[in-house]
Design goal:
Rossmann fold, 13 helices, Arc Repressor Mutant, subunit A, about 40% helix, alpha/beta, six-stranded mixed β-sheet
Length: about 325
């Protein structure tokens, strides 16, 4: 089962979710590759979860910001039946093609999900789709964005923003976090985390429910403590402490905490809590274990603690989450 985002139109549950990736030249080639990489990898019950098509106003060779040529075979009509329309990063932050703006406005009015990676937010803003909404973009361009689009509530310090029907990400690799978040929203934690493993990315990082700013963990930026983090992931059910983690890393608690902050952008205990909630979500999706056992196996302790942390992270109680996302054979 998948959860429809706020404002999303009804769609046929028996076909993959269709994503139209709009390349606005000169396109950022890295950004353009992310949706196909993530969505093209996601599987549900051994079947592709998504169909991805890349389109552009003038099919053929499309210039990139790095001077390379990328061939895009489809025109914008390929986005007509897409469930999600996603604009990737572009060097053209002014005077976007009117055909792209019209496509975005029609898709939004039709209730389809709209998203952007990096400077694609400039295109969404030119279409008027971000007015009165929270959004983010590549931090280097945030000053320009704020000056040009004062009606947008710009969030400069998050990886991505989920404002319900419209989602935006910060620059470059933050686009992967956004796409994994979309997979998680559509198909749940187990599918998103499996996809993350296949693309060798950190686990999907969910935030609150639709219409709230999503502030997930920042991407990991170092590998010195990678072995210790991997060790922790095999012992989430144990009552681990920061001292235990420091002992495994053969360092002091103070040094571990400093290095952990540098590599993950958060404290050891906050990282551990996120990983435990991730584990609890997977257990809820894939088993019918009682909630107290889910709490113990994920290291959250009690059913009350499990409920508290899930409501904070995904806006749902454990029972409601299981009803929405359960993938174990039942009924």
């Amino acid at each position: 089962m998948r959860r429809e985002h706020a404002g999303h139109r009804e769609r046929d549950e028996h076909r993959p979710h269709r994503v139209a990736v709009v390349a606005v030249p000169p396109v950022t080639a890295f950004d353009l590759s992310i949706p196909e990489l993530v969505f093209g990898t996601a599987m549900v019950e051994a079947q592709p979860a998504y169909e991805v098509v890349v389109c552009t106003p003038e099919p053929g060779e499309v210039a990139t910001t790095g001077g390379l040529g990328v061939v895009v075979a489809h025109g914008l009509d390929a986005a007509a039946d897409a469930d999600t329309v996603l604009v990737t990063g572009t060097g053209a932050r002014h005077n976007a093609d009117p055909r792209v703006l019209d496509l975005l406005r029609v898709a939004a009015a039709d209730g389809r999900r709209i998203a952007s990676i990096c400077t694609g937010a400039f295109v969404l803003a030119q279409a008027g789709l971000l007015d009165g909404r929270a959004a983010t973009t590549f931090w280097v361009m945030s000053g320009e964005f704020a000056r040009r689009f004062p009606a947008v509530e710009l969030r400069r310090d998050v990886l991505f923003v989920d404002d319900g029907q419209v989602l935006t990400s910060a620059g470059l690799s933050a686009g992967m976090d956004l796409c994994l978040h979309i997979v998680r929203t559509d198909y749940g934690a187990a599918v998103a985390n499996a996809t993350a493993r296949l693309v060798v990315a950190p686990p999907a990082r969910p935030g609150a429910q639709a219409q709230f700013i999503q502030s997930p963990l920042p991407p990991e930026r170092g590998a010195a403590l990678a072995d210790t983090r991997a060790w922790v992931l095999t012992r989430l059910h144990e009552p681990l402490t920061v001292a235990d983690m420091a002992a495994h890393a053969s360092t002091s608690v103070r040094t571990l905490t400093r290095r952990f902050q540098a590599e993950t952008g958060t404290s050891p205990l906050q990282w551990l809590l996120h990983r435990r909630v991730d584990r609890a979500l997977e257990i809820l999706e894939t088993t019918d274990l009682p909630l107290d056992r889910v709490a113990r196996q994920s290291g959250l302790g009690s059913a009350d603690s499990l409920r508290k942390h899930l409501v904070q992270r995904v806006g749902l109680t454990p029972s409601a989450y299981r009803t929405a996302y359960a993938r174990w054979p039942h009924g």
